[in-house]
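Justification of computing resources. Each target in the renewal requires a structure prediction run like the one illustrated here; the chain below, 333 residues long, is used simply to show the kind of job we budget for.
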Amino acid sequence: MAKINAVITGVGGYVPDYILTNDELSTMMDTSDEWITSRVGIKERHVLKDKDLGTSFMAVKAIEDLFQKTGTKPEEIEMIICATATPDYILPSCASIIAEKVGIKNAIAFDLEAACAGFIVALTTAAAFIESGRYKKILAIGAEKFTSLTNYEDRTTAPLFGDAAGVVLVEPTEEEVGFIDSVLFTDGIGFSHLGTNGGISTHPPSHETVDKKMFTIYQEGQYVFKHAVSDMSDAVVKIMERNHLTKDDVNWLIPHQANLRIIDAIAQRVGLDYEKVIININKYGNTSAASIPLCLWEYENKFKKGDNIILTAFGAGFTWGAVYLKWGYSKQE
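Resulting structure tokens:
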């Protein structure tokens, strides 16, 4: 019997209409377009302004986009994996809310939290379920309303984050395309350097913890920068070595869009030509788990069947890794 491979057969995406520019941010805090652009490469980010709408709203929009492009019906979906650090509620899961909103009734739906590395973990999980032969159509989602965790009094983090959602449809194939390999890691050393100080079972919401802004994102920039560059670069090198890929064999590198200087450093350390590196951080900022599927969505027309694509991400935990895909289709312009 032929080996079952897991392949991405469609991509959907969504970003909110409202665009928060660096110039507008400079009216809210002591910063400027030049200061932000020179440090992180971000010019603007999209924000879901309506406080009554959450991450599920954007994920649903992305799925509707995917369904429209691929002709997929809700009843065909057997599993939904939603990678998010900003679910609508503590419970129920964001994935279950998404399923209800798009009319998916025949699937298991659950959330996965690996911060900015969430999508590559979700994709690896979806691939394993497909390769088992037990599932045929899985949605792997990366969706974040990260501006809900942003402290707009902190100029070191406020310019970084935006809101977005991306989704891929993962299906089985007997062709030699699709998900090939992944390397995933976690090192708890990152606990005190990136995350939130408020929690649920520890430091739960109260007047004191909310007033102290313990539920907004905290980051020690230089410490995180060094680990992100080192760990993502090492993961990319490891995945290339394991699969006997040279830099000439790699068609595209899609890094998590956290900071343009991080992306530049990874490309240089790996030795890839810069035109092979997909970058859209200037338009969307850091959208956490949504950043890689957002790149897949925006650049889908550029990919050709058989292209070697490496995804890499790093996030709180610290959690990081890389995925090697052989792209499964060529899209008509």
